[in-house]
Structure formats: C-alpha cells, structure tokens
C-alpha cells in the first residue's frame, strides 16, 4: 500500500503519509450491487457512470494510488443489496485480512426499520467497523422537502434509529445534497455525542453564486456542531471537466468554515475516477494546501482521519 510521491509535492522519502478516508471496493461476480449490475440510476450525480460498472478490487485501487504513500484506507459502504448489508461488511473484512486494507469500515444499516438495532449490533461486532452510512430520504431540489416524511432526518423512527448509533459506539457518515445541510445540522446538535463525517464536502453541485451561497450557509450551520467533521472529497460535476480553480474555491472555503482540525482527505475512488485520476487528485489537493504549515497538511492528509476512524498507525507513518 505504501509508495512515494515523485515530484510536485515534496517527492522522495519526505512525502506526507495519506489516509484515504473514503473509497469503495466491489466484486460484481455475484451481482450484489444493483446499481452497478442491473438498473441504471438515471439521477446519478455525475451522470453517465458506465466506466465504473466493473469490478474494483484491491489491485485496482493499488494501481490507481501507485506512487503515493497511502498508509491506511477507510472503506465506505457501496450500495450492496439492502436485504443483507452485513454481507458486504463480511466481504470487506475478508478483503482486509488478505490484502492489509481497508483499515476501517463504514457499513450500512437502515435506521428506520424494525430490525435497525439488530443490524447495527451485527455491524458493530466486526472489528473494523467504525461507523454507519445510511442515506436519509432527501428531496430532488431545494424547497421540495416534505417535513417529517418517512425516512427523512425529521422522521421520528429515523431519529430513534440514529440514537442507537451511540449505544453501539458508531459514528455516522452523512451524505445528503447541499440543500439538506441545515436540516442535518439540527440532527448533529440533537446528538452531540455521535461523531459525524460529512461526505464529499457537502456536495456543492450548483456552482452558481446562489447555489454556493446556499451550500455555504448549510456548511456554516453544520460547523457550529463540534461533532461534525468533513471529508474534503468529490468535486466532480455532471457533464463538466474537473476544474482546479473552481474546486480550489470549494476546498478552501470548506476548510475555512470547519477548520483544518476537522477536515480530512478522501478520494471517493473509483467514483471520482470518472472525472480525475488518483494521482492528479492528490497533486491538486496538495497544491491547494501548499500554503499551510506542514503539520496542518499532515493532519489533513492523515492525522484527522486516523483520529476520527480510530486507526492505529506505525510511528513511521
């Protein structure tokens, strides 16, 4: 898993360690991922995703991350068929035992079903499981939310399930469109003891000034809850090339809002590979943060994720 960055960002043995706080692996041989094997998701946030409808296994990740000093990774649930989410955790745990990574797992469990607590307990029993990602029901556009609808972050059953995360010592990975961030902030304030990792920088998919203003207000609301951290990742947009300057603005604003101590690097590979290579992503992020003290860069690229996901690293890393 380890390598060295050559040129452009500290090259050589002095390169900073990376913990990838969010990536996926999948084996499509048993068709356990409906969105990758069967139906096409017409509303997929990056548009056409045919290029990732193939196996993505440890050797594929190693090839993508080659040349970078990746010392640990966090696997995030990848929409395994929802009737047996524990099976994905079992499979990923086996992958880790054979390959040495992932080093932590964010598993899946519905929070609003009658068996929610049973599934949470089963997931928490795996040594590598640190948290749960369970996407709440969201609206297709700003202003279209139905308050309190089943499965939403205002649903009493969903909130009761969320309360069980703390009982099982689990964190929560939050993935919602940016127009739901303020609503998510209310949940974060209601459960201050549950660590929350906001996925993909809050998904600022509307880069108009109006869209960014709404994203910014949601990010600021979340940042007022000290239990919320941010995975600074996935800046891809549908039908648009990866834009360094536009994405730099988002990265620097997110860090300014949350503080470097609550931000962590994540690749979202292979999904992010629809827009940018792993190498170009790391180099771009390093360039964006080159003005920061080296200690802050080290926290962003590895230390914060190690703390949040309780990953023990050798002293050399």
Characterization of this structure:
It is built from ten helices and eight strands. The chain is an alpha/beta fold and 317 residues long. The chain has a single domain, classed as Metal-dependent hydrolases (TIM Barrel). The chain has an eight-stranded parallel beta sheet. Strand 2 (70-76), helix 3 (85-99) and strand 3 form a beta-alpha-beta unit. Helix 7 (209-223) packs parallel to helix 8 (244-258). The radius of gyration is 18 Å and the shape is globular. InterPro entries: Amidohydro-rel (IPR006680), Metal_Hydrolase (IPR032466), Metallo-dep_Lactonases (IPR052350).
Tally of DSSP β-strands: 8
How much helix is in the residues? 25-40%
Q: What Rg, in angstroms, do the CA atoms define? A: 18 Å
Please report the distance between the alpha carbons of the first and last residues. 12 Å
Order of helices and strands: EHHEHEHEHEHEHEHEHH
Strand content: 5-15%
CATH architecture: Alpha-Beta Barrel
Total number of distinct structural domains: 1
CATH fold description: TIM Barrel
Uncertain runs are 2-11
Sheet with the most strands: spatial strand order? 1-2-3-4-5-6-7-8
The major beta sheet can be summarized as: 8 strands, parallel
The CATH class designation is: Alpha Beta
The overall pLDDT average reads 94
What is the global morphology? globular
**The named CATH superfamily:** Metal-dependent hydrolases
Helix-strand makeup class? alpha/beta
Number of helices in the DSSP assignment: 10
Characterize this entry briefly.
This protein has 317 residues and is α/β, with parallel strands linked by helices. It is globular.
